[in-house]
Amino acid sequence: MAVDIKNLNHNQLNDLITKAQARQGELRKEKVAKLREKIHALIKAEGYSFEDIFGNARGGKTRRSGGTVAPKYRNPADPEQVWSGRGKRPRWFNDALKAGKKEKDLAI
User: What is the DSSP string of 4-20?
Assistant: First the structure.
């Protein structure tokens, strides 16, 4: 099917481009589906499951559940208040810095 694009007006050309891009997307989806089927068939032929090869999370990142971090700073006025040095600074830490203390003075 040859289309003489020199004889098309602006609207016809835009319509042709839109249809061509839609068809290109359809072909890509078909190719991806066929490839996915081939991969699943190959995995099954080898005696494995998809989860054995790629894990349980499909495409998602697993988030580590971080444990507690040891405190790095202690409030001299209230030794119960500690800060690990991560995240937003606590109010007592900022107040101590404004009062003239240095970070190393607050370190544990």
Answer: -GGG--HHHHHHHHHHH
